[in-house]
Amino acid sequence: MMWRNYLKEMGPAWIISAVACGPATLASVSVAGATYGYQMLWVVILSAVFGTTAQYLAAKIGVLEGRGIIATTEQRLGKSWAWVLTLDALMATWLAAMVLMNALSGVTGLVTGIRTPFWGIFYGLLICGFIVRKGYRRFETLCKLLVIFVVSCFAATLFMTDLSVAGILSGCLPRLTGGTDGAMMMAAIMGGAVHITIIGMHTYNTNARGWTPQHLGLARFDTIASMGVAFGFYSVAIFLVAAAVLHPGGVTVKKATDAALALKPLLGDGAMRIFMIGIWGAALSTISPTFMAGAYFLADKMGWAPDVKDRRFAGAVFAGCVLSMAGPFVKGSFFLLLPLMLALGLTGTPLIIGIILWLLNRPEAGQAGKNSPALNAMGGLTLMVTSFLAVRFILTRFGLL
């Protein structure tokens, strides 16, 4: 009976999973698998594990504090820390929105044959109108359906692929692939699951559902089901397909069509269609919550009601949509811009993880609010590994490593 109730009531973490199961993760694991074979499988697996850990920690903050991460930080650490966290979150979130709109516009152009950056204006207004008029619950339902659809698109492909057991086992052993590109791909893969935007947003998602400390068990189940299982399967499946099909064929993935054409032997003439529908759904399910996240961060700092009925909050959503419209005008392949966006986002993520761990371990938190030793160990490991990959990416980018 308890599990049946959990299945009915889960939801907030599925919005996070919808964001994580986006075109950026798809591009990152596809490029990594095609370029390095199975070598980065350990990063893909850890991204699901650490992503689940970070999201549960965020859910605990939202449930125990009864407010978002920005307001909690201001109350517990002061206005200066709150402003730093707000600016960090907004920069990462709005950068993501611009690149995601570039991707959504790009894939629409590939599907329709009408390649124009003005698709961004169309989608920006359409998505903003949907969010403002339909509200949170219907938006959440749409995200659930899109995540399920996207995962299903790649499930069949995985089971039709000739996988190398030896390669998979070897890929589970941690190793650092040298060079700037290798460092960026590792940071991008991790950034797809452990990102300041989705970590911060989850504190607001739990509040939007009115969850209380009595719902911690539900929050844990919700997070494991969506991030650990759904996102984990999504990212591992795409990576394994790329490593098994694209890498042996010597396919260099620079565009979405490169990955799609490589799957033609498995899916026949429908390969391109299925792949493009999947990436379109992934882009749409990712960009919508990204607009909401930016509005949540700004509203929380300014003291506005986190509700689309509040004109100021609706204005913040609209502002994010308008900024994203500039994304399609940026030149370059969106399939290569997406991993770079995730890697840059990872560099701003250790701050929020560190703040959350401090909040959940301060003496005033009480016995119910404090983390267990096991959760602290996982949280600490998440912080250390993400920090290492982020710093390594920065150092290699500037030629210092």
Automatic annotation (TrEMBL):
<feature type="transmembrane region" description="Helical">
    <location>
        <begin position="40"/>
        <end position="59"/>
    </location>
</feature>
<dbReference type="GO" id="GO:0005384">
    <property type="term" value="F:manganese ion transmembrane transporter activity"/>
</dbReference>
<feature type="transmembrane region" description="Helical">
    <location>
        <begin position="336"/>
        <end position="361"/>
    </location>
</feature>
<dbReference type="GO" id="GO:0015086">
    <property type="term" value="F:cadmium ion transmembrane transporter activity"/>
</dbReference>
<feature type="transmembrane region" description="Helical">
    <location>
        <begin position="12"/>
        <end position="34"/>
    </location>
</feature>
<protein>
    <submittedName>
        <fullName>Divalent metal cation transporter</fullName>
    </submittedName>
</protein>
<dbReference type="GO" id="GO:0005886">
    <property type="term" value="C:plasma membrane"/>
</dbReference>
<feature type="transmembrane region" description="Helical">
    <location>
        <begin position="80"/>
        <end position="104"/>
    </location>
</feature>
<feature type="transmembrane region" description="Helical">
    <location>
        <begin position="182"/>
        <end position="204"/>
    </location>
</feature>
<feature type="transmembrane region" description="Helical">
    <location>
        <begin position="373"/>
        <end position="395"/>
    </location>
</feature>
<feature type="transmembrane region" description="Helical">
    <location>
        <begin position="311"/>
        <end position="330"/>
    </location>
</feature>
<keyword id="KW-0812">Transmembrane</keyword>
<dbReference type="InterPro" id="IPR001046">
    <property type="entry name" value="NRAMP_fam"/>
</dbReference>
<keyword id="KW-0813">Transport</keyword>
<dbReference type="GO" id="GO:0015293">
    <property type="term" value="F:symporter activity"/>
</dbReference>
<dbReference type="GO" id="GO:0034755">
    <property type="term" value="P:iron ion transmembrane transport"/>
</dbReference>
<dbReference type="Pfam" id="PF01566">
    <property type="entry name" value="Nramp"/>
</dbReference>
<keyword id="KW-1133">Transmembrane helix</keyword>
<keyword id="KW-0472">Membrane</keyword>
<feature type="transmembrane region" description="Helical">
    <location>
        <begin position="274"/>
        <end position="299"/>
    </location>
</feature>
<feature type="transmembrane region" description="Helical">
    <location>
        <begin position="116"/>
        <end position="133"/>
    </location>
</feature>
<feature type="transmembrane region" description="Helical">
    <location>
        <begin position="224"/>
        <end position="246"/>
    </location>
</feature>
<feature type="transmembrane region" description="Helical">
    <location>
        <begin position="145"/>
        <end position="170"/>
    </location>
</feature>
<keyword id="KW-0769">Symport</keyword>
